[in-house]
Design a protein that fits this description.
Layout (H helix, E strand, L loop, with lengths): L4 E3 L2 E6 L1 H7 L8 E3 L9 H6 L2 H12 L5 H11 L12 E4 L2 E5 L9 H5 L2 H9 L5 E7 L3 H10 L5 E8 L5 H8 L6 E6 L3 H13 L1 H9 L2 E4 L6 H21 L8 E6 L4 H11 L4 E8 L4 H8 L1 E3 L20 H8 L4 H14 L1 E3 L1 H11 E5 L2 H15 L5 H12 L6 E6 L7 H7 L9 H12 L5 H4 L11 E2 L4 H12 L2
Parallel strand pairs: 5-15, 6-7, 6-9, 7-8, 8-16, 10-11, 10-15, 11-14
Antiparallel strand pairs: 1-2, 1-3, 4-5, 12-13
The protein binds pyridoxal-5'-phosphate (PLP).
The site of pyridoxal-5'-phosphate has 17 residues, from helix 12.
Protein name: Threonine synthase
Family: Belongs to the threonine synthase family.
Organism: Olsenella porci
Amino acid sequence: MNMLYHSTRDCSNPVTSKQAILQGIAPDGGLYVSDGLGQARVDLPSVCQEGYQATARRVLSTLLTDYTEDEIASCVAGAYGDNFDSPLVTPLSPVGKDWLLELYHGPTCAFKDVALQMLPRLMSVARGSDGRHVMIVTATSGDTGKAALAGFAGVDGCGVTVFYPEGKVSDIQHLQMVTQEGGNVAVCAIRGTFDDAQTQVKRIFADRGLAGRLAKGGVVLSSANSINVGRLAPQVTYYFSAYAQLVGTGAIVEGDEVDFVVPTGNFGDILAGYYAKRMGLPVGRLVVASNANNVLTDFITTGTYDRRREFLKTISPSMDILVSSNLERMLYYLTDGDCERVASLMADLREKGSYSIGDGLLGKLRETFDCGFADDDETRQTIRSTWEGDHRLIDPHTAVAKTVLDRIPREGRQRVCLSTANPYKFSADVLGALGGNVEGRDGFACMDALQELTGIAAPAQLSELRDKAVLHPDVCDRDQMAAFVEGACQRVFA
Ligand SMILES: *Cc1c(COP(=O)(O)O)cnc(C)c1O
């Protein structure tokens, strides 16, 4: 079956998955979705017998039907090899009576690697022999930036520009980005929040004047944010892999339903779980876990999405988001593909700062989704109790999800908590949560103290950062971002 994609806001103008991946976002600002989702199923018995790479091939070829089998196979072989430090790629391990799905074994120690080791390969294939250059422009709340830099550095015909909110990412995340090497990368801090950066990046994509100028130099812009189908699709794989591992341990038998609790920001990770369900994975509930920026908890409780609230800086910065972009895809599927309705909800969000979906749709949403949130104090307590009780060291994002998981009643199903970052990315906050002294200590001093306290080694790619030179000191205002991108294109593709 051939899956075609179109905008969530306009059901005409279908494109192939290669075109959708190259463009990133639809020209009208909507996200690419396919009405074929759910028509082709992934064969569960096979998934339960095979390894990560085989499952990835199966999932990707179901969603990205215009890639040939060979193309998918070579992308998968390149993306999920020894760049992950576990042969399982995303190993599952027990925590109390539940499970952690460890998504942080890639080169930058965050779950974003699972998708961003794959996206550049999908994009290179999609570019084919077309002579145009692709500049990836990405706003990051901390983890996407480094994962995109690591994925795209040195990729032929591609460049990558990353914007992150100044002072709102951890020390280690900051160093991971500003020390990135490579002739095709650009990194800039912006004065503002992640939402400011993301909104401005969306405007840059919609800027026809800029697109015209870049086209003259043979350059097109694209996105590595989770609005890109090429990022979403690879994330579906690990839900299937988690399930296969549960079957492998004997915790479930094939066909049993499993619940997933997901630390959520932009709604990309959990949406992949919904895709997995539609593709035949026996998913019980999908639980959206938020930090104190609990706009999604309110939405799933009341049916009203309201971004008009104070933005809070938390110890789980990758979830400090008030506009969860991928929710738009969920609205599309929730309304059974009503593009006009989605377009009007998104117009309400833009113009009034809020929208409501009504009781009917809310009821439908809640058939699958549940929600909860944890503030910083609760998150710290969970880091501590999980270390003291289960001898598992978890990062603040994972701890948000674990807090929510511990609070909801067990309904007789196995429960998987998605673990999205290595705790050493957030050494200071994790050390502080364990009662260690963080006063006057920088990220590396905290890393050392945390290693001493727990006996768990920090990953080399994080501890080595202390010896690296800062290569990207730039800071700009929101209205200078477009010019920064244009400059980066000129430099990278000169
Ligand atoms: C990006 C990120 C999240 C949130 O994932 P979304 O797909 O944006 O919902 C959670 N935890 C960590 C560590 C992340 O980097």
